[in-house]
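Standup notes
- HV: blocked on the assembly model, inputs below
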Amino acid sequence: MIPLVIDDFSVVCDAVNNFLLYTCGLPKWLTVTIECIGVGVGLLLAYALLALFYILYERKICAYIQCRVGPVRVGPWGLFQSFADMFKILIKELIHLDNIDRFLFALAPYLVIIASVICFAVLPWGNGLQIIDFNIGIFFLIACSSIGVLGILLAGWSSANKFTLIGAMRSGAQMVSYELSVGLSILTMVCLAGTMSVGGIVAEQENLWFIFKGHVPAVIAFVIYMIAATAETNRGPFDLPEAESELTAGYHTEYSGIHFGFFYLAEYLNLFIVSGVASLMFFGGWMPLHFPGWDTFNHIMDYCPSVIWFLLKCFVLSYVIIWFKWTFPRLRIDNLLALEWKYLLPINLANLVLMVLIIVFGWHIV
Amino acid sequence: MTSLAIFGIENNPLLALVAMLTGVALVALALWIAGLISPKSYNPQKGQPYECGIPTRGESMSQFKVGYYLFAILFLMFDVETVFLFPWAVKMKALGYEGLISIAVFFCVLVLGLIYAWRKGALEWK
């Protein structure tokens, strides 16, 4: 069957590559350099625009949940509010502090941003539109996302402020604990996929998304993943590191102007990244909704471009995480750690055994 | 259905480096712009740590609760477990029952470790 819409970004990439190599006759190293710069600029734009969009997205949702309208003044439906805020934060003074550890203080935002940009580049954006595709892709993503914790710990420690220190330590304990649950629920799905490459995981879901294919254990893993991901991003009911009423602003209290903006940016991008990983592991990444045997249905679903499928899944999953934040009250630190170590971790381990049984006996669908 | 890295650049570490440099560029660029257009003024009051308006007492980079370390150690144990399980998860079907039994023994040892930590009260926040 001939697809009516050509939905494969690698066609565009090959065209650019051939144009540079053969039409312009550039040497190989120059072509690769130009392409790398192109990838970098594209990544930077996507990162910044998505972060600005997400800030507005959360503000609008939280406003509607609280029966307000949210930002409406700047542009239609307040669309340019985030741009205005970005310019405002750029013209704010970067306060020069005494007694801080200057090197670590300056290093912390770099670590936080680098961790989220690398994770951002691993996500499967669309058919052929994926920047980094290792054979250990998802493992690389987990590894890189843990660098962010280091940035937060450094920020809290180097600020020479007791509130930031407490915030950073809480954040470290929380993110490190919940990383286990994220890792184990991803591991459960890797058992089903049989590959760690991001492209491979998406390809495995061509017939059916994993949440349907793995039925019971996949659903349990998904619920655990969503709870753990909310805690990983320091959001929602798990925002202890930034508990305003106890710790001023947590680990970034001493950061001013755009320096603070970086933490803010990374927080929203991490929200996107955890939703992206959830859509990759459970909802097929960019893969349209397919059911085995429903050929006409599958063909209709293919009309929607893969990039739109991926973004829609991310927005819906992010909506759920934002919904958590504005619905549940904040946890206490002992409850938080008990939830992870006494409930989620044992359930996750049992779920892994269940998934292995299902795969060994072939009880999964398809 | 070819969804490999963009432009057919085979060298994936190179693209990871590009992503890393993009992050560095983002921070450096924004800081440079902010340095150009933001006001600068110095005042000894501004240089103080902000602890809700109360003057700071004592050393701020001080000792903190040991409980955090305990959780960090527990995390290390289980994270290394996950790292060992990942390669097995990929090759699960190829390794068959032999691999399943060996990983089950490994898994049981770690569950015993969790039960031990639980019984010892390491999971309580005191």
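- HV (later): unblocked. The radius of gyration of chain A is 22 Å. Chain A has a mean pLDDT of 86.
- Next: hand off to the docking folks.
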